[in-house]
Amino acid sequence: MQRISDSTVHRLSKYFRTLIYMQGKGIKTVSSKNLAHHNGVTAAQVRKDLSCFGAFGRRGLGYNVVDLRSNIGKIMGLDRAWKVALCGVGNIGRALLDYDQFRSQGFQITVAFDKDPAKIGKTIHGVSVRNEIDLERDVKAEKVDIAVVAVPARAAQSIVDRLVVGGVKAILNFAPINIKVPPGVYIRHENMAIEIETLSFALTNPDLVQSE
Amino acid sequence: MQRISDSTVHRLSKYFRTLIYMQGKGIKTVSSKNLAHHNGVTAAQVRKDLSCFGAFGRRGLGYNVVDLRSNIGKIMGLDRAWKVALCGVGNIGRALLDYDQFRSQGFQITVAFDKDPAKIGKTIHGVSVRNEIDLERDVKAEKVDIAVVAVPARAAQSIVDRLVVGGVKAILNFAPINIKVPPGVYIRHENMAIEIETLSFALTNPDLVQSE
User: Fold this and answer.
1) Sheet of A107-114: strands edge to edge?
2) Cys staple from A202: which of A194, A196, A209, B6, with CB 3.0 to 4.6 Å?
3) Chain centroid to CA B113: how far?
4) Is residue A180 within 8 angstroms of chain B, CB to CB?
5) ipTM of the complex
6) Best residue in A197, A203, A211 to probe B by mutation, most B CBs within 10 Å?
7) Which CATH number is associated with domain A82-193?
8) Which of B42, B108, B187, B196 to mutate to test the interface with A (most CBs of A within 10 A)?
């Protein structure tokens, strides 16, 4: 089977959200054209993305909303709960502890770490903050699936190395620095400035961008 | 000239960061292949993305790092300072007030708003928090270019409507809700859960994804 790009997976995430919305509205079926329209892509793109994983719709009938949602959820691994560890309880970390979009998609921060004595032992948004010194041991004991790294850039590589020692196979990095991981470990970088740059691009090139 | 997609602009952002990194390392020229390798795309994709905006490299010689960085910066509008207003000084808002990646790319949060009397008048990371009641008047007076909306979902549409009244043409929305804006206004949505879903996808389908 072909490799799937992150861009395809990002679009599946968006289709999944649209389907949740439609299901909430009681909509039973959706065409590739309509699903495309909601997500700013072409109908051909929607059909191509979905065809990577099988045949979901019926020609002329479109997709059943509940079934397609369920299928994309399974493909994305969103039909189960993932144990998430948070490293770094600063501003971004605190925001993520209270982030509904994580919880609603099955990403449950069950354990958090910091090295600040003023934070260790505190319970923030229902999660008690542990001493970072126990990181390797605790992520192993807690069988953490995914770690979110929200520490300062200078500390990020060392934290990631220790997460890998603790057996963590998937890391979401908020620190503005490239991080090395060994084979078999997945890392993705979250940069909240990327999206604001599409706005400066739009303001700079209004003729090249579709506004609302 | 053709319309440019957000995906293309996102890739330009990434190339721009790679070029900054290379410039810092003293690297003088870069091939499309090398720039592609750093960003997980093909060399053909790099050439296609850049060709939308002119001819920057020379066949066989690659791109001059400093020149290409400068050119992409101009294209993206990253060669100037943008006045940014923050609406909502909760966890995400506080994180953004202290977010180096905004500042370093020219996005300067010069004014922040909240409706919580406990926050109004406080100075947080150098920005004093104003009363949200003055939103329309103040964003107009301050000539705000871009507003970042980090209020709860239920309040987001009303805040955006008021920003539009105040003349703001570009909005970055962190609230997990679809927002309507009139023609001529650009809005982008930041969802910090999209990237973690590429990790659940990778853990669910290790054969379909390249790990490190």
Assistant:
1) A123-124, A127-131, A107-114, A82-87, A146-149, A170-173, A186-189
2) A209
3) 20
4) yes
5) 0.92
6) A197
7) 3.40.50.720
8) B196
Amino acid code (one letter) for A5: S
Angle at A58 between CA A54 and CA A63, to 5 degrees: 80
User: What residues in A contact B169, CB-CB < 8 Å?
Assistant: 203
Read off the pTM. Answer: 0.83
What is the C-alpha separation between B181 and B28, in angstroms, rounded? 44
Tens-digit pLDDT profile for residues A149-180: 999 989 999 999 999 999 999 999 998 887 99
Contacts of B211 in chain A (CB under 8 A): 183-186
Domain range annotation of chain A: 6-75, 82-193
CB–CB of B13 and A180 under 8 A?
no
B182, B185, B198 member nearest A10 (Cβ): B198
pLDDT along chain A (212 residues), means of 10: 78 92 94 87 87 80 93 95 96 90 90 97 96 98 97 95 98 89 93 91 89 58
Q: What are B14-50's pLDDT values in tens digits?
A: 899 999 999 999 999 999 999 988 877 788 889 989 9
Q: Which fold has domain A6-75?
A: Arc Repressor Mutant, subunit A (1.10.10)
- Say yes or no: A7 contacts chain B, CB-CB below 8 A: yes
